[in-house]
Amino acid sequence: MIQMKDISKTYENGTVALERVNVEIGKGEFVFIVGASGAGKSTFIRLLFREVLPSSGTLIVNGHDVVNMPKSEVPYLRRGLGVVFQDYRLLPDKTVAENVAFAMQVIEAPRRRMQHSVNAVLDIVGLRDKYKNFPSQLSGGEQQRVAIARAIVNNPALVIADEPTGNLDPETSWEIMDIFKRINASGTTIVMATHDKYIVDTMKRRVIAIEDGKIVRDEAQGVYGYEN
Ligand SMILES: Nc1ncnc2c1ncn2[C@@H]1O[C@H](COP(=O)(O)OP(=O)(O)OP(=O)(O)O)[C@@H](O)[C@H]1O
């Protein structure tokens, strides 16, 4: 699903965020990316959907050559991915259903299929009854559920999440993690950057630790390994 070879990223101001990173992530894996603040986790995540480009190295995501693809191919890369952020990033003037449907309008899905898919993903995240609400009428956990519904509505092979529980209390975080677990159980690959030690230690999934832009640990059933 993801092949990263010798990837380095130096930002315009000279900050080295990643240095010669090599990683392979297979289809259906659930991978946590951990590390201290500023270690390079977000940069790693943002490379995957081409929000930033590497300074050197090669990166294949879901069959797309992220570094060398023409601009016209970028939408095809992103259609195969769902992305979830810490701050939800919902459109405030659209309802729950419209926020989710918007991700399908972008790919010009037929109207009937769209309605069916929106209902199906709202069922998965347990928010069917709130489809008419606006984001401001939802709790943080509910907003994150909508963001997850939006991320999976086009059946992506890969879901990428950057601190998805960062703004949520422990109980709500677990509800969100249960949804990610279910999505993964259906075969979707998940790559998640997180600071949540308890979640990482409890889930016992693959853990990739980044320090100063380098991978320092990669364990199949890893632990968080840092003090919170
Ligand atoms: N757009 C940018 N321009 C310049 N430097 C940047 C940019 N984005 C990130 N950096 C720097 O790159 C390094 C890695 O940042 P990154 O956001 O990837 O870390 P992180 O591990 O996600 O941190 P956090 O846990 O605080 O989100 C840091 O030193 C950061 O200051």
From TrEMBL:
Subcellular location as annotated: Cell membrane
Membrane topology type: Peripheral membrane protein
Primary location group: membrane
Assigned GO CC terms: plasma membrane
Keyword set, alphabetical order: ATP-binding, Cell cycle, Cell division, Cell membrane, Membrane, Nucleotide-binding
Top-rank taxon: Bacteria
A molecular function (GO) term: ATP hydrolysis activity
InterPro entries cross-referenced by the UniProt entry: AAA+_ATPase (IPR003593), ABC_transporter-like_ATP-bd (IPR003439), ABC_transporter-like_CS (IPR017871), ABC_transpr_LolD-like (IPR015854), Cell_div_FtsE (IPR005286), P-loop_NTPase (IPR027417)
One GO biological process term: cell division
Residues annotated as domain ABC transporter: 2-227
Family that this chain belongs to: Belongs to the ABC transporter superfamily.
Main function: Part of the ABC transporter FtsEX involved in cellular division.
Assembly notes: Homodimer. Forms a membrane-associated complex with FtsX.
Protein name: Cell division ATP-binding protein FtsE
Organism of provenance: Schwartzia succinivorans DSM 10502
